[in-house]
Amino acid sequence: MKVYIIGAGPGAADLITLRGAAILNRAKMVLYAGSLVPTGILVHCHPEAEILDTSKLDLEQQQACYVRAQLADCDVARLHSGDPAIYGATAEQMRRLDALGIAYEVVPGVSSFTAAAAVVCSELTKPEVSQSIIITRVSGRASAVPALESIALLAAHRATMCIFLSGPHMKKIVTDLQLHYPDDTPVTLVYRASWPDERVYQGTLGTVLKENKRGEWNLTTMMLVGAAIGHGPQVESRLYSKDFKHLFRAKAKKRAVKAELPVPADQVEG
Which residues belong to any copy of the Tetrapyrrole methylase domain (predicted)? Predict the structure, then answer.
């Protein structure tokens, strides 16, 4: 018996990994975070699987499910939204599984911050603009953000920022960002990337509050901030420049030259 902690991806049923879908297809018990994971993902589940919505269960009740599966010797698929490593509340589950002597495996998934970037066809890192990504959130009722990780302090780096759960806190976030980022810094808001009700706003730090009404964006809104997400003229990477030499391209050129060498006369048949 084993528990598989699976990243369900941002929402769309076909953005779960092949590995995650395969495990869902054979697991006889599936626990999923119904408040964050759409039921469409459950299309991958085994037809006879017992499916439980953990939004209605506390941690002890979830633990009881693992114990029941252990007694029945059946695998459990535990679905988390996005990637389990980011705001997944998985550490406390793994501690309990360790105490119970139950084996587990983590299966990564597509995070909502990369899905949001994909929605607007944007890179989050660009040469000479930003080579760092700060993934953060604001304090909520469930857990507080450490004071040293406040957005006002992190903004000093002017790196690309991906701010989870930003919807209701937009005014405070923008005020803190403006301490360091100029008003023309690109801002993208994505609500439920890849879901049927996905919504997108693209503007700047100076326009985002003017062009969006208070309360218009839900808690699960992702905010992307930084010069890198803009689509204006920028420096191109030298990675694919024809005059940029690296190990793999040098080997490929050597093979190509070798393939074009004439065959010695004494090796020609006939």
Answer: 2-208
